[in-house]
C-alpha cells in the first residue's frame, strides 16, 4: 500500500533509507525543520539548513521518486536564545515561496519555558500574517500534557489562527483529545519503544476514529524507524481494518491537510 510519512527528518537519514522507503511504497514525505544533530550557533547556520530542506533533500528524494515537502522554523530545542530565534524567524519569509514548503513548523515547546513560549508566539504571528499552515511539536521531555495545554491555549488565544490549518503532532493517549476537540489535525509519532508504538497508535485510532489524524515515523537522531508507517499498516491489517480505512490514515489524511497549503500543486 502506498503511504505518506508526514513527519520525518531525512537530514539524519542515509540515502539507503530513501531506497528502503521507496521499496515499501513511500509516495511522499514532509520534513519539518528541527534539530540538525547539533546546536547551531548562528542564523546563517539555519539559512544553510533551509537551503538543504528546500533544495538538497527534494533532489535526494526525487532519485527514488519520493516527493519531498518541508516546514520552516527554529525548533523549540534551540529557541531558548530569543535573539538568535528572532534572527532565524526573519529568514523564513524568503523561503516560503519555495515550491516544496508546506508552512511553518515544527514549532512548539520543549521544556515549556517562557522563552520557548515567546518564540512560539512569534512564529504564530508570522504564520498568521503570511497565512501559512502550522505544524506543532508537543514536548517529549517535560510534562507533555501541560505543554500541549499551553500550546493549545496560545493557539486559541490568537483569533487569526484557524484550527483546521494546524496539525498538533506527537499526540499520545492523554493529549489526542485536547487536539481533536479543539478542531485541530493531529499526528501520532511511531517510535520503536518510547512514545507511541504502532500498536498503541492503532488502539488510539480504534478509540478516537480516523478523522483529522495521521501517523509518522519522526525518523530523527534518536532510535527511530523510517519504516514505522508500513509497520502500522501491517498492524491495522492484522486487526482486520479495511484497506480503505488504512489508506485514509496513511495517505488520504496527510494529503487532505497538505492540500490547504499556499504552494500546493496537485
Ligand atoms: Zn520532528
Automatic annotation (TrEMBL):
A Pfam family reported for this protein in Swiss-Prot or TrEMBL: TatD_DNase
UniProt cross-references to InterPro entries, sorted A to Z: Metal_Hydrolase, TatD-like, UCP005295
GO molecular function per UniProt: hydrolase activity, acting on ester bonds; metal ion binding
Source organism, top-level taxon: Bacteria
Keywords attached to this entry: Hydrolase, Metal-binding
Homology family: Belongs to the metallo-dependent hydrolases superfamily.
Name this polypeptide is given: TatD family hydrolase
